[in-house]
Amino acid sequence: MDTKRSVAFHTLGCKLNFSETSTLSRMLEQEGFVKKDFDEPADVYVINTCSVTDNADKECRQLVRRIQRRSPESFVVITGCYAQLKPQEIAGIPGVDLVLGAAEKFNIAQHISELSKGDPTRICSCDIDAVTGFNASFSQNDRTRTFLKVQDGCDYNCSFCTIPMARGKSRSDRVERVVEQVETLAANGVKEIVLTGVNLGDFGKGPDGSRHEENFFQLVQALDAVPGIERFRISSIEPNLLSNEIIAFVANSQRFMPHFHIPLQSGSNEILGLMRRRYRRELYAERVSLIKTLMPHCAIGVDVIVGFPGETDTHFKETFDFLHSLDVSYLHVFTYSERDHTKALEIKPIVPIPVRNERNKTLRNLSYMKQQFFQQQYSGQTRKVLFEAAEKNGMMEGYTDNYIRVTTPYRAEWGNQVIDWTL
């Protein structure tokens, strides 16, 4: 292929996917590709997929159809979790030229160079057990906030989850290498780094699954000492891996923001057991209590799944009442969707789709009230806001240290700056 070809990317799913898409984009730009927006004509379109929900699968198909209508001569490359889990299914989508599994994702430049339009769809994938390497990634769309991948894969086997099948065993970078990356990002003007991974708190395992003599708490300590970065955030961490020492350290840190995102999934211990989660609601409540004792102003986000098989009205009420009682700031509510090859498929009875949707709506309403209550507590207070440089319809956005979003008329001099702001 001509080295001056253009490429456009689209990312589905999590912050980890965004960090990897950004890295793949830089790799292709180094090979001479010109980056285009996804809605622009391009020679190659790359879709980095998620497979947490049915919607992500459907959206992937819709995107391919859109490309086919707009640019039928372009190459279409599918990678990410959906590509690892169901490569044959993706290869059957008209217009897809290349499917890259987890092991081949970061060899994308070589694979694209070997493509010829009209050839049968190529599948470059392998058994997930053969995926052992760790590829560091970070997003860099603007200088304000970067998602930095420090861990990949998961050794947990939650009964609803396909991530271990899509990303392999838990493995991570070394503290020393992460510090070097952070120093480079600081030199490039980045002000905030969000640490990302599949099971972030499990940081410390090498590519072969053995533990380094390192853990997530040591990573946090090391990064806190790196000059130049004003803010760190921990993207999401399992409650059983969020230790008291991590919480206490963040409470006393000037760089780690008072903001945690802690998956709960259910407020019913019986459902947590069916989900194969590694904690019970009592431990979750302890973590929230300690955080709010040490950092009353801390934002706490919660992931929760509704409509899991076997979830009765009583179980759902347990979840609602538990969340209502917790001093948390917002919820990310997911409606359970069946995933192939998961243990949850064996659990009965199945919750009807309308009931799942109604429960989702109920918890989203609770989330709205939680968020409003949290933000109103700080009305009139002055907090530090890091404003993003991007302008949208004459406005700009930023976040306080405790993750309250602020929108204000655009001022160029505030871009990528921390400003004292009265809420």
Alpha-beta content class? alpha/beta
Count every beta strand, where a strand is a DSSP E run of 2 or more residues. Answer: 19
Q: CATH class of the domain at 129-257, please?
A: Alpha Beta
Mean of pLDDT: 93
What is the CATH architecture descriptor of the domain at 129-257?
2-Layer Sandwich
Give the fraction of residues assigned to helices: 25-40%
Main β-sheet, in a few words? 6 strands, parallel
Number of helices: 13
Radius of gyration: 22 Å
Low-confidence stretches: none
Distance between the amino and carboxyl termini: 53 Å
Tell me the β content: 15-25%
- Side by side, the strands of the main sheet go 2-1-3-4-5-6
CATH topology of the domain at 129-257: Transcription Regulator spoIIAA
Shape: globular
Give structural notes.
There is one protein chain. The protein has 423 residues and is of the alpha/beta class. Among the domains are: 6-126, Rossmann fold (3-Layer(aba) Sandwich); 129-257, Transcription Regulator spoIIAA; 382-422. The protein has 13 helices and 19 strands. The chain has helices at residues 15-30, 54-70, 81-85, 87-91, 108-113, 163-167, 175-187, 216-224, 244-252, 269-275, 281-294, 313-325, 353-376, and strands spanning 6-11, 34-36, 44-49, 75-80, 98-100, 122-124, 137-138, 145-149, 151-152, 171-172, 192-196, 231-234, 259-265, 299-306, 330-335, 382-387, 395-400, 405-409, 418-422. Strands 2-1-3-4-5-6 form a six-stranded parallel sheet, with helices on both faces. A four-stranded mixed sheet has the order 7-8-11-12, with helices on one face. A four-stranded antiparallel sheet has the order 18-17-16-19, with no helix packed on it. Helix 12 packs parallel to helix 13. The longest helix is centred in the last third of the chain and has 24 residues, at 353-376. It starts with 5 loop residues before the first strand and ends with a strand. The mean pLDDT is 93.
